[in-house]
What does this fold into?
Amino acid sequence: MNLYTHYHLARRLEWLLRPDDPADYAWGAVIPDIRYLAGMPRSQTHVAIAEVKSWLECFPALRSFTQGYLVHCLLDQIDVAGTLETSFPMPLLQKITRRKLSQTQATMLVEYYYLRDARENCARQDGASPAAVISGKHNAILAELGIRPEQTEDYAWALKEYLAVPTLENAVRLARRLGLVDDSRFEKYLGAAQSLQKNRLLLLPMMWSVRNGQFERRGKRLIRSYG
It folds into this structure.
């Protein structure tokens, strides 16, 4: 999953965990992807669920942050492409696109769906976007993962700006700040998003497939299964 998808779903699932500090919870839900800015392998920030749960005892003062981090790692267990394949008639999709939906395309579709939803909500509120709050604080868990305070600060600054106005254009700006411009996966993501924006015949059924994928419900099941 991509960044805004993680943020949106974590906020929607917040009531299940009832964090004491919602801003630190939201921060934990998006921080694992700091690996791009820090130049770290995925395994360094996307750690095993058991290790994340151990932080609840090792770092009790960071409980809300840990809860958000746990939600991020759990959501990443969802097979996004597989989920969309079961929520959309794939023979029809393959006839339209002439190819099987890739994982990159699938995560882009879900991200675009939630960005589009955020834009429509903003329009309904006369242009007033709801405040997106993350704590952005460096802490002992991040230090243990090898993340430096200045990296935390840079990442938090970029994220706060993006989450305040979550659009595809700002997602591109964020990617540049994180050093993803030359990343082949990002180039595929951006190309797919731009292509989708121009093809309304494909856009509408695709958005329906994301909604029918019930990612929030799947996240809820994962949280409950891991206690």
